[in-house]
Structures are given as structure tokens and as C-alpha cells.
Amino acid sequence: MDQIRIVGGTPLKGTIEISGAKNAALPLLTASLLSADPLNLSNVPDLADIHSLIELLTQHGVKCEWDLGSKTLKLTAQTITSTTAPYDIVRKMRASILVLGPLIARCKEAKVSLPGGCSIGTRPVDIHLRGLEELGATINLQDGYIHASAPNGLVGATVTMPLVSVTATENLMMAATLAKGTTKLVNAAREPEIVDLANCLRAMGATIQGDGTDTIIIDGVEKLSAATHRVIADRIETGTFAIAALITGGELYLKNTSTDLLPSFISSLQKAGAIIENEGDGFWVKSSGQPITGVDVMTEPYPGFATDLQAQMMALMTICKGSSMITETIFENRFMHVPELCRMGANITVHGSTALVRGVDQLKGAPVMATDLRASVSLVLAGLAAEGETLISRVYHLDRGYEHIEEKLSRCGAKIERIREALAA
Ligand code: UD1
After folding, report:
1. Which of 143, 172, 250, 353 shows a CA-CA span of 20 to 30 A to 31?
2. Using an 8 Å Cβ cutoff, are 25 and 419 in contact?
3. Please, what is the end-to-end C-alpha distance for the chain in angstroms?
4. Taking a C-beta distance cutoff of 8 angstroms, is the pair 357, 320 a contact?
5. Could you identify the atom of ligand 1 that is nearest to the CA of residue 191?
6. For residue 40, what is the enclosing H or E element?
7. Are 188 and 150 contacting, i.e. CB atoms less than 8 angstroms apart?
8. Is the pTM of the predicted complex or chain greater than 0.90?
9. How far apart are CA 389 and CA 384, in angstroms?
């Protein structure tokens, strides 16, 4: 397995272009299943998760033409040849569950492997399933698979979700576009990726209102048609590189993105002493030259502080002046980066869902191991700030969500390199 070697201590300076959002692109790709006509997506990031989903869509019969150079992807689901999403692909990526809503809406049946838990939590899919039942689907769980059917098609209904779930909102919103009548999704997620999906579905001919609020209303239509859509900027990549600037005492211009995508995160950075300046189609993140001040954060559904930026924020707080209390409310096991950060000299104590981070003057490089996508990037950030060499193993997690991360960072002065498997072994 590849490793990443970092020699820390260089303040980053320069421009980083932010890629299209993984978590926006994934549901957009599955939206192609809703129509026999082509869906043309641009700004599609070249990530392992996108490759996995293309593999899945291909075996459903979708023709996928991806031009990596221009970052465009043409998806044509003229005929759905299989309504089964097999375990072998779903287990690689939980977001594969996003084919369920479109398949049942278009084909009136679907068989999708249950995704199972992952390292950060049990992550059930009950809200997806209950919502589809309320739209008239019959759901049976058998042999590790979700068997969903709606022989007469889905019928609009009011679905009140007990918890705010991003992918459940997306699945139900997509399913409802082809249902008979009106669907009201109550307690819906408000993430920018939901709005991006709604924009694309509208371009395909869907009637949707209220996206970006907690109540989304969808009037079902007979069919959806061809559309062209650009994937929004990745707000988690944006936040990650903002921290890279601050943790190294440097300054970066983050291009093709916006502070509007992450209001709570930006305000936490400003409280910590960061200088943030909007300019053109991006913004500057600059260290004030003073040590970072400890701030408390609690993860929450959007527009609150994103759980996907919690590990990176913790890395920043390890070298703060004072201390910081970080509370994780979305996933039950999302502190696996803590012992690894402590191996680099951080002072962190965990009590249940809260971590108390007492700032230290300096992190020290060490061999560490990545455990999930965002935890692994928090180790990259810590490595950029640490004195000496950090060697990160299991970096395949990083490749799921960060496009060309070493290139982007090294162009701004970071001493970072990938050691390929054969050499690392
Ligand atoms: C999405 C994001 C992920 C992010 C998460 C929270 C994608 C592809 N992934 O994941 O990066 O960390 O939102 O912002 O967009 N839950 C249930 N039952 C369900 C569904 C969810 O109990 O049926 C719980 C989850 O276990 C979790 C909480 O609800 O505790 C929120 O999870 P959810 O928003 O569904 O996360 P994902 O959509 O899987």
C-alpha cells in the first residue's frame, strides 16, 4: 500500500484550485438513472469513490464517458439492464445506496446490498427505507440485500425524517421526482450538495421547491430529460486547505470556491485568528503571524460545523494557544485520529463525544496510520506543521476524497511525496 512522507515546517504559500465536490458528484451521477436521456456533468473530480460509482452505474447499464482532461462526464442510462447493486461494489463505498431511490422510481424495483457499518459509525439506512415505504414501496431485507418494489410506481406523500440525513434526503428527493403527485420531505438536510442536486434535477425537468431549507416539496413528473450541470466546489476540500494554510503559518488563495459554502467553519477560523479575504472566484486564508487561538466547536448538520471537517479542525487546535473543546454529534466513533495525533505530540483527552485539546508548542513527526478519509487528511495537516518526518500509511483513504493532494500541496511549498506500494513494501 502507498504511503505519504511529509517533512513539516514549511509555511504554505500560493494558490490551490478547489475540485468539484465528491459528495455533490456522487448523487448527481446516480441521478442519471432517472432518465433515458444523457446527463452531462462538468467539474467532476477524479477520485476513487467516483470510479467505484461509475463501475456500479456501468453494471446497471449506464454508458459512462468520462474525459479526465476536461473533467466532463456524460452518463446515458438509455436502458437499465440490471436493477441489482451487488455487495462487491457497495461494500467499497456506502454512497452506492444512492442508486436505490432512482432505480425504484424509474424501474419500479431495485435490489441493493445493505452497505453495513464503517469505521466512523454503524450508519444505518432505516431513514432511506422508511421514506421509500411512505412513498408506496415494499421493502424486504433478505440475505444482506434491500429488495424494494413498487409495481404501480411510487406515490407522493409527506415524509418526516426523524434525523437529518444527507443521503436519505437525496435518495428520497430523486425518488419523488418520478412519483405520482406531491411529496413533502420534512426535516430534510440543507447541505449545499442537496441544493446542487435539486438544481440538476430541475435542469432535467423536475419540479422541486424548498431545497436549502428543512422542507422540500417535489411535484412528480412523467419523465426527466437531458441536462448539463456543473458540480459545485468541494467545501470539505476547501476547509482542509484553509487549515493547511493556518497550521503552517502560511497564506493560500483558494480558487473556484466560496466562503458561502462553509459559514460556520469560516467563523470558527476567524475566531481562531485567521484572516479571511474574499477575492474574485475564491478567497485568501492567511495566518495573522500570531499563534492560533483555541476555539470550541460542535459538529452539526448544515449550516452548522461539518463533521467532515472535525478531524482537520482538531489537527489545527493541537497547536493552539489555550485549549479547545471539540464535540462530535453526528457519528459515534469519529475520534480515531486522536491516538495518532497524540503520537505526534498532541495533548488530547476524549470523554464520550467530546475531545479536550490542550494546545502544545510544536508537533513532532512520527509514523502514523490513516483510519478513514477525513482522519487521514488530518494526519497530513499535522505532518505539514510537525517538526521532522511524518510517514502516513493506508493512504488509500485519502484517494477516495482528495484529488491530487500531494501535487496541490507541493506546488505551494509543502515537502510531501507519495511512496508507491512497491517501494514502500
Ligand atoms: C453524508 C456525507 C458524509 C458526511 C455525512 C454527515 C455523502 C456521500 N456523505 O453521509 O461525508 O459525513 O453526510 O454530514 O454525502 N442515520 C441513520 N439512519 C439513516 C441515515 C442516517 O440513523 O437511515 C444517521 C447516521 O448514522 C448519522 C446521521 O444520521 O449518525 C447523519 O448521517 P447522514 O447525513 O445520513 O450521513 P450520510 O448521508 O451517510
Report:
1. 143
2. no
3. 7
4. yes
5. 14
6. strand 39-42
7. no
8. yes
9. 9
Length of the chain: 425
- The whole-angstrom separation of Cα 20 and Cα 233 is 5
Distance (Å, whole) CA 208 – CA 186: 14
Q: Which cell is 322 given?
A: 489555550
| Tens-digit pLDDT profile for residues 96-153 | 999 999 999 999 999 999 986 666 666 789 999 999 999 999 999 999 999 999 999 9
**Is the Cα dihedral 115, 116, 118, 120 positive or negative?**
positive
**Residues 213, 195: Cα–Cα separation, whole Å:** 9
Q: Are the C-beta atoms of 224 and 178 separated by less than 8 Å? A: yes
| Ligand 1 binding pocket includes 163 (Cβ within 6 Å) | yes
DSSP 3-state of 53? helix
pLDDT digit string, tens, across residues 281-313: 999 999 998 999 999 999 999 999 999 999 999
> Cell match 515546517: residue?
9
Quickly tell me which residue has 511549498 as its cell.
Answer: 413
CA–CA gap between residue 169 and residue 216 (Å, rounded):
9
Tell which one of 114, 126, 163, 236 to mutate to probe ligand 1, the residue whose CB is within 8 A of the most ligand atoms. Answer: 163
Q: Which amino acid makes up residue 158?
A: T
What residue type is assigned to position 136 of the chain? G
Instruction: Describe the chain by its helix, strand, coil percentages, rounded to 5.
Output: 35, 30, 35
Q: Is 200 a catalytic residue?
A: no
Please identify which residue in the block is written with the cell numbers 448523487: 27
User: In a 3-state reduction of DSSP, which class is residue 366?
Assistant: coil
As given in the structure block, the three cell numbers for residue 305 are 460545523
Q: How far apart are CA 108 and CA 101, in angstroms?
A: 10
* Run of H or E including 50: helix 48-60
Ligand 1 within 6 A of 307 CB?
yes
Question: Phi and psi for 176 in degrees, rounded to 5?
Answer: -70, -20
**Interacting residues of 210 by C-beta distance below 8 A, sequence separation 6+:** 188, 216, 217
Handedness of CA 269, 270, 273, 278 (dihedral sign): positive
